[in-house]
Amino acid sequence: MDLSLLDGRFAPDVLEAAARTAIAAWALAVDGPDDDLLAVASAEAVDQLLYPTGDRAERLVVRGPKIESVEINRLEPEPAPARMSLAVQVSGRRYIENRDTAAVVAGDKDRDVKFTETWAMALDGSDEVPWRLVDATPSD
Fold it and tell me: Could you give the CA distance from residue 48 to residue 134 in angstroms, rounded to a whole number?
C-alpha cells in the first residue's frame, strides 16, 4: 500500500524535501552557525553530527561540503514515530578542530575527502518540520 495516499507526509517529494532540508542545515552548521540545524534536528543528533568525539571543545568542520548523493535507504512507518534512514555521500575538507586552540585533532584541513553520513529522521516534528533528524551514526 502506498502510505502517501493515507498521509501526505509519506509522499516521495515530502521525504526528499525533508532530507534535503536537513542536509542543507548540516552543510551550513559544519562550516558556520548551528541555527538551521537546531531547527530540524534533535539536540542529541546535533551533538552527534558536530561533536563526534563527545568533547564539546572538539568540533567537526567540513570546509566546502559538496553533496555527492542522497539515498533514502529505509522507511519504517511503525512503530510510531515513523522513521527513515538516509545515506548522504559528501566530499570536502573534513577534520575535527579543537575550538580553544584551533589545532586539528583528526583529519586534514588541506585535503578533500569523500565520506558517507548515515542519518535517521523521525516523523515527530511540527507541521512546518514534520520529519526531524534524530540520530547520526558517526562516519569513518
Answer: 10
Predicted TM-score of the model (pTM): 0.85
Question: Domains of the chain by range and CATH?
Answer: 3-137 (3.10.450.240)
3-state secondary structure of 3: helix
Q: Which is nearest to 118 in space by CA: 139, 97, 99?
A: 139
- Which pLDDT tens digit goes with each residue over 58-116? 999 999 999 999 999 999 988 889 999 999 999 999 999 999 999 999 999 999 999 99
The alpha helices in 9-100, defined as continuous H runs, are 12-29, 35-40, 43-50
Cβ atoms of residues 61 and 96 within 8 Å: yes
User: Is there a contact between 104 and 96 (Cβ–Cβ < 8 Å)?
Assistant: yes
CA distance 41 to 29: 12
* pLDDT value of position 32: 82
